[in-house]
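User: Before I run my own analysis I want an independent prediction to cross-check against. Here's the chain; please return only the structure tokens and, at the end, one sentence I can use as a sanity check.
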Amino acid sequence: MEHQGQYPALFGQLVAMLHFAAMQQMGKIKNPMTETIERNLEGARHAIDTLDMLQARTRGNLTAEEEQFLKQMLQELKLNYVDEVAKGDSPPAGGPSTAHAGGGASS
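Assistant: Structure tokens:
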């Protein structure tokens, strides 16, 4: 099966999915299943690390648009992650804390 024509869309969907997951785990977006704000900074850190790995492993193999999209998503996540870690273990407005803060954001 030849799927290379779908790869750009699939790549964008993968990046967007990990971005959404990290934002949800930072308590920035409601969990669509429970309609509550949940906070799991360890999970958010894992999603960000996965995108960092994806960026490193695909370097030189992406279009300029894909590189820019991935870079912007990572920048937004890292800034939000640092903000959430600085807040400490206090629960986000509207919901309980479900995890403790993880490590710091990497560049």
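Sanity check: The chain has a mean pLDDT of 85.
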